[in-house]
Amino acid sequence: MRAQAIIKTGLAGVALCALPAPAIAETLAQLDAESRATDNAVTGIAQARQQIRRGELLGAMATLERVLFNHPQSNEARALHAGLLCRIDDRRGATVEFDAMRGSNVSPALNDEARAPCRQRS
Amino acid sequence: MAFATFPLNTVRNACAALAAALLAWTAPAIAAPKVVGITSAVVNDVQVKPVATETYRKAKLRERVRLADRVRTGQRSRMQLVLLDKTRFSVGANAQLTINKFVYDPSGGAVSASVVKGAFRFMSGKSRRATKTVTTPSATIGIRGTVFDGAVGQLAVDIARRENSVPRGTRHDPETATLIVLRGPGQNRQANLPVGLVEIAGIAEASLDAPVILDEPLKAAYVPYAGAAPIGPFSISLSGLGQLGDFILAPPTRNFRPFNASSLPFPPDRPRGPPPGAGYPGGDFPGGNPGNGVGIPGVGGFPGSAGFPGGFDMPRNPGRDRPHNDVPSDPPRDPAQPGSNNPDPRQPSAIPPDTDQPAGVPLGTVPGTNEQPQSEQPPQGSVPGTYPNNNPNRHRNMNPRVYPDNPIGQNGMTREGYPAGDSPYNRREHAKDSYPNGEPTGNFPADE
To answer: Which of A20, A122, B211, B253 is at a distance of 20 to 30 A from A116, taking alpha carbons?
Structure first.
């Protein structure tokens, strides 16, 4: 029994050591791709919309933050980011974001899209 | 007996050989600290100091970040760090961050980071059961599936001083003070996310048993100095939230107008805004504290501290407010000094706008393009008496008496009357040991 336990432990150790290398490389490649998408505001916002559709709200927030880092004038990114704050129930925080955009040239459609989550209750 | 011993010895030998092989295979990985994530966004001056070296070098976009690497940002700089489990740190200007521990395991795992100074946003990653902690010089923050904002240092003090829930007379340490604000997810979230929860404990042993728990969005806690117990939970004002957010995210650069209470979809949860006659330029500021703009006769302090004339001692909480001789109290303002015309000790010390940065400082380019980041200078033609629409430091300009209407940078002077680039704030900021060769402009020394 003891020998079996040792063997099992050894195999588990081998498995733990063997798995991460390719998994890490794959993960890093994925992170690179996500980061690369936000080099451009349009592709970054498109990626954020996809993440929202998939329910990856925190990922979408991070994506939009990267867009805003590089393109702080992007009203679309800021509006969607504010809408995401509502989705995570930070409605007053969303108000701050929306308020910062008052007077900005935001299309009615974008305004409706961004504010829709703030009118909902889960 | 022999039958029983033989296979066991064989197994032992096999295991020893296996261990040796594993050691040889993993030796390079052991020699170099493991990669824990990448710099997914880099704006302006971001530097990294690998653990094996003594000097910082300029960080690249999508650079691999290893365990114990120190990452820091300069003025007007931002960065985002994504770990392998998609835990994310969005870091504002003048910040310093280190990932101390990272174990990626979907069924558990651990993330531990330390923030020495600056503003940051933390977002949990995939591992919902991971043990996640962020430490600051004055607090330990335990995290459960959440998004929260934090500030360490002068920014935390500046925000906390305006919050009603932070008692007047509280001693603040601009080096170690920590402010934490939970952003979500709350109970009414619209996705399959765990409700966020943050526990904040001071570093003093006495406060470890009584952490402040934040379980609703915009609940906040504040640790005024290393050794103090956290103050909170309290609801952060919208002005404080905006101030913190602007340090993490780039503020909008045009068409910005300050808050207006009429824009709120809900009534303020408590009386807000400056008293009549001391209104925020351009309209009432719903997140402002009553009393902003009104001089406070004095502050108290711990026994032995001089305080200000007319000051008072805050109620003592032995577990929380032990005398802390190491923390200097705010020096009395010298009326003869520029910028000291504000008798309100709750107002921030004279903080020059970022426009103190001299002309010619390279702003860097937007990754992937040749665009220069948009200037954050105030717009031409701002209406006198109103708040500059795109001033990144608008959160600092809450007291119209302190900030006259003269444009920033006019005649080479800041709003407070300091020569550009030379103010107590700058001198204090750049005297810190984390910038041994720091320059008044906030630029990092050349790559070494």
So the answer is: B253
Residues A56 and A70 in one domain: yes
Q: Does B126 touch chain A if contact means CB atoms closer than 8 Å?
A: no
* pLDDT of B51: 87
Q: CATH number for the domain including A119?
A: 1.25.40
A49 with A107, same domain: the answer is yes
Would you tell me which residues 34-93 of chain B have a C-beta closer than 8 angstroms to some C-beta of chain A? Answer: 35, 37-38, 40-41, 43, 61-62, 64, 78-80, 82, 84, 86, 88, 90
Residue partners of B174: CB distance under 8 A and separation at least 6: B153, B154, B157, B428
Question: Which chain A residues in 60-119 lie under 8 Å from chain B, judged by CB atoms?
Answer: 61-62, 65-66, 68-73, 75, 78, 81, 85-93, 95-105, 117-118
Mean pLDDT of B29-47: 86
Residue A64 phi, psi dihedral angles, 5° rounding: -70, -30
What CATH number should be reported for the domain whose range is B36-344? 2.60.120.1440
- Is the reported ipTM for this assembly greater than 0.90? no
Q: What is the pLDDT of residues B195-205, one digit of tens each?
A: 999 999 998 87
- B76 to chain A: closest CA residue: A69
Report the predicted TM-score, pTM, of the whole model to 2 decimal places.
0.62
**Token pair for A85:** 């704050």
As a whole number of angstroms, the distance between CA B135 and CA B130 comes to: 16
Residue B121 vs residues A61, B113, B288, B336, B342: alpha-carbon distances, Å: 11, 12, 23, 39, 32
User: In sequence order, what are the residues at sequence separation of 6 or more whose Cβ sits closer than 8 angstroms to the Cβ of residue B141?
Assistant: B133, B134, B135, B148, B150, B180, B198, B199, B200
B2 close to A (CB below 8 A)? no
The whole domain housing A120 covers: 38-122
Residues 6+ apart with CB under 8 A from B48: B39, B56, B57, B58, B59, B63, B65, B69, B70, B71, B72
